[in-house]
Amino acid sequence: MRSIFPYKEPIVVGDLKLSAEEIILGLDNRLTNERKQRIDFVVGNRTYAITPVLDGLYDVGNMNAVLRTAEALGFQSVHIIETSSKYKQANRVTQGAEKWLDIMRWKTPIECISWLKDKGYKICVTSFNDAKPIDEVDFVTPTAIVLGNEHEGVSKEMIANADERVVIPMYGFTRSFNISVAGGMILYHAVKYRIKHLGMSGDLSFQEKKILKAVFYLRSVEHAEQILRREILKGNEYRV
Q1: Dihedral angle at the C-alpha atoms of 37, 211, 188, 85, nearest 10 degrees?
Q2: pLDDT digits (tens, 9 = 90+) for 172-218
Q3: What strand order describes the sheet that includes 132-133?
Q4: pLDDT tens string 118-158
Q5: What is the H or E stretch that residue 54 is in?
Q6: Of 97, 145, 99, 137, the residue nearest 121 (C-alpha)
Q7: Prior bond of 169 cis (ω within 30°)
Q8: 7 and 212 Cβ atoms separated by less than 8 Å
Q9: Contact 201/191 with Cβ under 8 angstroms?
Q10: Where do the domains of the chain lie, and which CATH numbers do they carry?
Q11: Are strands 11-13 and 16-18 parallel, antiparallel or unpaired?
Q12: Is residue 131 classed as helix, strand or coil in its secondary structure?
């Protein structure tokens, strides 16, 4: 199993190669104390261990709603398989959530499956057939939650490679949930499960938190590359 944390030092910013510490110090005075505290809080609750996979969804609104939910609950990565329609951002729905996420796009389910398996993820598909209730799933181990499209459901490739099939129990006449609603329910359940068994959902190491904090600083500050370049030149002048 390979590391599922995607960043490493030095961090490339344009043609600069910087440590997380250099980025944080260089951009520190560009952020308010409130924003810095929020970034620290968010980083402390982030995880890559649970990742939603949107398997060929047709409705852009549903895709964007899942992105917003994933970000709000602390899941840092989302996979989008673009077999039906190319993903388009809709700020009205995401409220800027995609800015903070690591979104990976795939042309086929097989490409996505290969990557997930290589990283050690358990593939968990939503299904009505031979499925276990969602509260019986172990969300402590790295898990990819696959949400199928609105018409055909999860792709046959994902089903064939699934480690688990899960279902949200329903007690009314309605036999299915809207995909964004189902995604939200499963992701929230995953957070609650991880808090119950781990004490919190976030699980990044000290160094991973520092690196992700630097990444969020870069995403928070306009013209970050130019600012960092000036800070480096200023530092070089002081050392002369």
Answers
A1: 120
A2: 998 888 999 999 999 999 999 999 999 999 999 999 999 999 999 99
A3: 102-106, 77-81, 50-55, 143-148, 122-126, 164-167, 132-133
A4: 999 999 998 888 899 999 999 999 999 999 987 888 999 99
A5: strand 50-55
A6: 145
A7: no
A8: yes
A9: yes
A10: 47-198 (3.40.1280.10)
A11: antiparallel
A12: coil
Residue 53 burial (C-beta neighbours within 10 Å; 0-12, 13-18, 19+): buried
Tokens of 39: 């970034």
Segments in the chain forming alpha helices (H): 20-27, 33-44, 60-73, 91-94, 109-119, 156-160, 179-198, 206-220, 224-239
Nearest to 75 by CA among 122, 139, 126, 123: 139
Tens digit of each residue's pLDDT (9 = 90 or more) over 11-57: 999 999 999 999 999 999 999 999 999 999 999 999 999 999 999 99
Q: Which pLDDT band, with edges at 50, 70 and 90, does 231 fall under?
A: confident
Q: What is the pLDDT of residues 82-107, one digit of tens each?
A: 875 554 554 443 457 889 999 999 99
b/e sequence 88-105, b meaning 16+ C-beta within 10 Å: ebbeebbeebbebbbebe
DSSP state, residue 216: H
Cα separation of 52 and 58, whole Å? 16
Longest dimension (CA), the chain: 76
Are the C-beta atoms of residues 3 and 141 closer than 8 Å to each other?
no
Tokens 């172990």 found at: 138
- What is the Cα–Cα distance from 165 to 219, expressed in whole angstroms? 36
Residue 238: pLDDT over 70: no
Structure tokens at 228: 């960092």
Identify whether the C-beta of residue 126 lies closer than 8 Å to the C-beta of residue 159. no
